[in-house]
Amino acid sequence: MTKTFTSNDIIRYIYEDLPETEKQCIAALISTDKEFNALYKELQQAQDMLNQLSLAEPSDKTVDKILEFSRNYTACQV
Fold first, then answer.
1. pTM over 0.85
2. Which residue intervals of 15-59 are DSSP H helices?
3. Rounded alpha-carbon distances, angstroms, from residue 60 to 46, 64, 65, 72, 76
4. pLDDT tens per residue across span 45-71
């Protein structure tokens, strides 16, 4: 039986989250299939862009509001 790989499999390949046998199959597909290679490059570029993002820290005022809410929160008792 032939396994069909999806974009999710490529993402797992990029993040090194595949068994060795699947890694080898995907690596072979990347090197031999133009469409698969193009999708791999697109997803690799997306990962690179995500890695370059800098996330803002919440302001002290926001953190204080969240902590105040948490201190005063009581769960609904059923």
1. no
2. 20-32, 34-52
3. 32, 6, 9, 18, 28
4. 999 999 998 888 989 999 999 999 988
